[in-house]
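### Sample
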Amino acid sequence: MITIIDYGLGNIQAFVNVYKRLHIPVQVARCAEELAGAQKLILPGVGAFDHAMERLEASGMRATLDRLVRQDNVPVLGICVGMQMLADSSDEGRLPGLGWVPGRVVSFRSNPGLEAIALPHMGWNDVQAVNGNPLLKGFEDEARFYFLHSFYFECAQAEHVGARSSYGLDFSCAVASDNVYGVQFHPEKSHHFGVGLLKNFAEL
């Protein structure tokens, strides 16, 4: 069962629709009780980092998610801001992140020479799998996904980088650490590449 975490942010229905077309069981959780029986979790997110963390805390699901992911090793996929929430912290805000993948979220403009780069990074871009990321299995050499972001995940450990892309510099656009995965791009807006990625996650 794929469980989509609905804490008020992200295009929940788009993910539900993909899994229904793939004939993969899916449910939506809006409270801790509805997380019962989750075999895999998807954490979507849009907007600002602090606002997303506040909404997740207010949902009452945070403690249950920590237990499922950290103790029960349930696979989780963070998407867009949902991926950034996996980090320890973000330069965009002041609140701590979930801390499930060591690292921090930084702005493209924090890099020397990129102070004037156009943000957000928006549109289609190539994605290169790193460290054998299973989410990109089957299309590692041709993957293209839709992006919309101004910050990116800077992993504390290179082995946690799951994919890279380029926008002014090479940056980590996916992370993978044990049962925790994240992608900065939007698979729900990325046509067959996105469908393939979501299918791969369901088959982990």
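The radius of gyration is 16 Å. This sample (Imidazole glycerol phosphate synthase subunit HisH) is used throughout the tutorial notebook.
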